[in-house]
Structure formats: structure tokens, C-alpha cells
Amino acid sequence: MVCFRLSPVPGSGLVLLCLVLGAVSSYALELNVTDSEKATCLYAKWQMNFTIRYETTSKTYKTVTISNFSTATYNGSICGDGQNNPKIAVQFGSGFSWTVNFTKEASSTYSIDGISFSYNISDNTTFPDAKDKGILTVHDAVGFRIPLNNIFRCNSLSTLEKNGVVQSYWDVHVQAFVQNGTVSTKEFLCEKDKTITTVVPITPTTAPPPTTTPTPKEKPEVGSYSVNNSNGTCLLATMGLQLNFTHDKVVSVININPNTTDFTGSCQPQTALLRLNCSNIKYLDFVFAVKNENRFYLKEVNVSMYLVNGSVFSIANNNLSYWDAPLGSSYMCNKEQTVSVSGAFQINTFDLRVQPFNVMEGKYSTAQECSLDDDTILIPIIVGAGLSGLIIVIVIAYVIGRRKSYAGYQTL
Ligand SMILES: *[C@@H]1O[C@H](CO)[C@@H](O)[C@H](O)[C@H]1NC(C)=O
Ligand SMILES: *[C@@H]1O[C@H](CO)[C@@H](O)[C@H](O)[C@H]1NC(C)=O
Ligand SMILES: *[C@@H]1O[C@H](CO)[C@@H](O)[C@H](O)[C@H]1NC(C)=O
Ligand SMILES: *[C@@H]1O[C@H](CO)[C@@H](O)[C@H](O)[C@H]1NC(C)=O
Ligand SMILES: *[C@@H]1O[C@H](CO)[C@@H](O)[C@H](O)[C@H]1NC(C)=O
Ligand SMILES: *[C@@H]1O[C@H](CO)[C@@H](O)[C@H](O)[C@H]1NC(C)=O
Ligand SMILES: *[C@@H]1O[C@H](CO)[C@@H](O)[C@H](O)[C@H]1NC(C)=O
Ligand SMILES: *[C@@H]1O[C@H](CO)[C@@H](O)[C@H](O)[C@H]1NC(C)=O
Ligand SMILES: *[C@@H]1O[C@H](CO)[C@@H](O)[C@H](O)[C@H]1NC(C)=O
Ligand SMILES: *[C@@H]1O[C@H](CO)[C@@H](O)[C@H](O)[C@H]1NC(C)=O
Ligand SMILES: *[C@@H]1O[C@H](CO)[C@@H](O)[C@H](O)[C@H]1NC(C)=O
Ligand SMILES: *[C@@H]1O[C@H](CO)[C@@H](O)[C@H](O)[C@H]1NC(C)=O
């Protein structure tokens, strides 16, 4: 069991995994390519294994597994310059080579262009009785895009399968085009990590339960949602949503990605429903109601989420009172606000605007802003309070003054 000293890459659950899975052979590969000024320009740390199925001279098939990288060398790994693109090149075992190349796209993203894996099937100790001879290569075009100055992280298992070769990768951290020699702390997560690591930590059950909350999340992206009825759009909502839930004493925070979220709903005279759903959320319902025939508010939130271990997390509360505004207007709150659905589930909202009733021509009506946004209202209050205080002081001074002078005349 080899565990390399862990580099200062955040979000690595590897320390725990190494300790707990001590019996399982697993090599973390790590590469730090520096430029002529000794500044890091390409950084990667990852784990992988390969299984290769090949045909033998007796027309049967054999499978070999490559998971020992103790002899790995990194010759040919380059940062890239004007002519060449960055590349990770690794050689191991008896004639294996593995390369990943990167390209810069536009000014704000780079991409993992492709992954090539070559093996020497002529090597009859690794591939006994192989029918083929020579070097075989599988190339996978990946085309995965990452924002510049972000480190790509994928702790989850990813596999590539082609021509009898299965490539497995996990605990991947990689950044090309590293700026100023400093590996970024901004992580760009693969889709699987977004759901898995945030829903259930991948610590084995024997590990001590995590006591800390997960790393603070970035602000969620703002999504625009709407519901139509026969008269056109009847409900509008624009908001960034972050769900914070506690399950088995583990706090998880997930951001809703509007790009992968579907929405439906319904509008009735007294209630309106907006339902969101995506791969790991079966439904997230916002139910609005009318009160006193002149105001609306968020009355109910129901949620049901799939957890990675296969169980379902569900919470409902139909006795809420949030986002209160007059009918015929919209409710707006740009600052972060929290809808506390239960002790174990809360929704943090960002750049919120909703109008569940009386939507005209698909557009928001005038907004009633939340008190959090209303910095401006405080100023007149303070100024007003100051002014009235001054007036009171003047009046009191005047009255006392008059009393004094009056009393003065009396004594005369
Ligand atoms: C990479 O190598 C450089 C130069 O040796 C060092 O300063 C830097 O800390 C290393 N980075 C990582 C992430 O190991
Ligand atoms: C390769 O790694 C994956 C992920 O850890 C593991 O599930 C799989 O069993 C490994 N394959 C072999 C042949 O060791
Ligand atoms: C990995 O390969 C090296 C060199 O071939 C060998 O010494 C070592 O015992 C191997 N490790 C495992 C776990 O097979
Ligand atoms: C690869 O690098 C190792 C040390 O990192 C060196 O000993 C070896 O000669 C290099 N091989 C080639 C083909 O450049
Ligand atoms: C990456 O490598 C593949 C094959 O090795 C090649 O076809 C592709 O053009 C390379 N991409 C870049 C950007 O160098
Ligand atoms: C492939 O393996 C054969 C047999 O071990 C060896 O003769 C040959 O040089 C190897 N080819 C390369 C490119 O390493
Ligand atoms: C491997 O091939 C060499 C000749 O290329 C042969 O002498 C040797 O017996 C073979 N080994 C096995 C295990 O088949
Ligand atoms: C790199 O350094 C330049 C100049 O010192 C600075 O403008 C830039 O913001 C830095 N980039 C990062 C990602 O730190
Ligand atoms: C559609 O608009 C008409 C006229 O404003 C109204 O009478 C009717 O109830 C509306 N239908 C729905 C489903 O809201
Ligand atoms: C709702 O209706 C508007 C126009 O009335 C239309 O542009 C929009 O695509 C519709 N949305 C959905 C989800 O059907
Ligand atoms: C998530 O909820 C927990 C417990 O209610 C709280 O301590 C934590 O600050 C919340 N985190 C976020 C990002 O809202
Ligand atoms: C959603 O899509 C937009 C436009 O295609 C893109 O800019 C944004 O990065 C995507 N957001 C996420 C979280 O994938």
C-alpha cells in the first residue's frame, strides 16, 4: 500500500481512504510539472487502473489488470508553450504509456482534449499467448471543459471503455495552465462528485463520522422558472437555490443547477405550485397561497431527494410563511435568504424574484423588496430620528427657557 504524501489539494478524502482501505493496493500518481522558472504550470494527482481483454492464439480471451504504477515515470509531460499543448505522459510496467493532452479554449476555459493508452501486447509475460503483436493504442476524445484557473476534481469513479480496454479513474485532481505557479483552490467538480460527495460522504462506515460541515459552496446559479396555463404564463420565479439538509448527522449542501433542472407546476385562483426536479431530486415543490384576499406568500415546501446509498430523503412543511407580498406585485430579495423548512432542511435563496399570481403578459409586476435588501429605508429612518430628536431638544429647551424666565419675573 503506497500513499503518497498528500499535496495541499483541498477536498481530498484520500487520507481517510488510505488508512481505512489499507489492505487494498492502490497508487496515487502525482505530477507537478514546472516551467523554466520552477513555477508549477501543470499539476495532477489521481488514481487509475486498467483491464485489458485480448485474444489468444488459441482463439480464447484473457483479461489482465494493470494497477501497479510503482515504476511510473513522467517523461514527456510538458506545460505547453506557443507550439505545443500541455500534456501528461506516464510510462509504467512493461511498455505501457498513458497520455492526456489539454487545449486552451477561448480566454476562459481549457479542456482535457483526449486520453491515449498504449500497451505492448508483444510482451508475453504480461500478455501470455496473445495473438496480436506490437503496440496497441486506444484513444478517447474527452473534450471536457474546465474554467481557467480552476482545478478539476473528480473523486468519483469514471471509466472509459474501448476495444477491450477499460480505464478506471478516481480521486482525480488536475489543473493545466496553472497561473502564477499556484495550483488553484477553486475546484471544478465532475457531475458525479456534485451529487455524491455532497449527498453522502464516501467515507467507509468504519471511519469516524464527519463532524464538520462540508466546504462552503459557491453561490448557486440563478434559474428562471415559469408555469403556464391556458391564458399563458401564470407563475414566474427567478432564483438561485442551495439546499442544506442533515441526514444521519451529516450536513450536505447542494446547489441546484438550473441547466439540468426541469420544472412544472399549476396555477389555481387561491394556490399555485412550482415543482422542480432533476436527477437526484425527485421533486422540490413550492406551494404559494393567498391570504386575506390581498397578499400571497410561500405556504408549503415539499422535497424528496434520492441519496447515493439508494434511500430517499423527504420533508414537507405546509405551515410556512415566507416571501409575503401584495397580490398583483412580485416579491424580490437579492440578498441571501433562508427558508427554514425543518430542522433538517433549509433552502438558501439568492437573487430571488417570484410572482405566483396575477402575472400579466409573462412579465413581473412591480416588486416588493424584502427588508434585507432595503438598506435605503434605514437612512431616512436614522435621519428622521435624528431630526425629530433635535426638534424635541429644541422644544424642551424652549419650554424650559420660558419657564425659567417666567419664574424669574414671578420672583420679582
Ligand atoms: C510543485 O513544485 C513546485 C516546485 O518544486 C513547488 O513549489 C510546489 O509547491 C509544488 N506544488 C505542489 C502542488 O506540489
Ligand atoms: C479498478 O479500480 C476500481 C475503482 O477503485 C475498482 O472498483 C476495480 O475493482 C479496480 N479493478 C481492478 C481489476 O482492480
Ligand atoms: C509493483 O511492481 C514492483 C516492480 O515490478 C514490485 O516490486 C512490487 O512488488 C509490485 N507491487 C505490487 C503490490 O504488486
Ligand atoms: C525517464 O525519466 C527517468 C527519470 O525520471 C530517466 O531515468 C529515464 O532515462 C527517462 N527515460 C527516457 C526514455 O527519457
Ligand atoms: C491529443 O492527442 C490526440 C492523439 O494522441 C491527437 O489526435 C490530438 O490532436 C491531440 N490534441 C492536441 C490538442 O494536441
Ligand atoms: C514490446 O515487447 C517486446 C517483447 O518483450 C519487445 O521486444 C519490444 O521491444 C517491446 N516494444 C516496445 C516498443 O517496448
Ligand atoms: C515469450 O517469447 C519468447 C520469444 O519471443 C519466448 O522465448 C518465450 O518462451 C515466451 N514466453 C512465454 C511465457 O510464452
Ligand atoms: C497572476 O499574477 C498577475 C500579476 O501579478 C495578476 O494580475 C493575476 O491576477 C494573477 N492570477 C492569479 C490567478 O492569481
Ligand atoms: C383566463 O382569462 C380569463 C379572462 O381573464 C378568465 O376568465 C379565466 O378564468 C382565465 N383562465 C384561467 C385558467 O386562468
Ligand atoms: C409559456 O407561454 C409562453 C407564452 O405564452 C411561451 O413563450 C412559453 O414557451 C411557455 N412556456 C412553457 C413552459 O410552455
Ligand atoms: C446548513 O445547516 C446547518 C445546520 O442547520 C448550519 O449549521 C449551516 O450553517 C448551514 N449551511 C449553509 C451553507 O447554509
Ligand atoms: C449552464 O449553462 C450556461 C450556458 O450554457 C453555462 O454558462 C453555465 O456554466 C452552465 N452552468 C452549469 C452549472 O453547468
TrEMBL record:
Membrane topology: Single-pass type I membrane protein
Cellular compartments annotated: Cell membrane; Cytoplasmic vesicle, Autophagosome membrane; Endosome membrane; Lysosome membrane
Pfam families, per the entry: Lamp2-like_luminal, Lamp2_2nd
Keywords: Autophagy, Cell membrane, Cytoplasmic vesicle, Disulfide bond, Endosome, Glycoprotein, Lysosome, Membrane, Signal, Transmembrane, Transmembrane helix
PROSITE patterns tied to this protein: LAMP_1 (PS00310), LAMP_3 (PS51407)
Keyword Metal-binding: no
GO annotations of cellular component type: autophagosome membrane; late endosome membrane; lysosomal membrane; plasma membrane
Disulfide bonds: 154-190, 333-370
Main location: membrane
Residues of the Lysosome-associated membrane glycoprotein 2-like luminal domain: 31-178, 220-359
Protein name as annotated: Lysosome-associated membrane glycoprotein 2
Family affiliation: Belongs to the LAMP family.
GO BP terms in the entry: autophagosome maturation; cellular response to starvation; protein targeting to lysosome involved in chaperone-mediated autophagy
Species this protein is from: Zalophus californianus
TM region positions: 377-400
InterPro entries: Lamp2-like_luminal, Lamp2-like_TM, LAMP_CS, Lysosome-assoc_membr_glycop
Region (Disordered): 201-224
Signal peptide: 1-28
Domain Lysosome-associated membrane glycoprotein 2-like transmembrane: start-end pairs: 379-410
Keyword Glycoprotein: yes
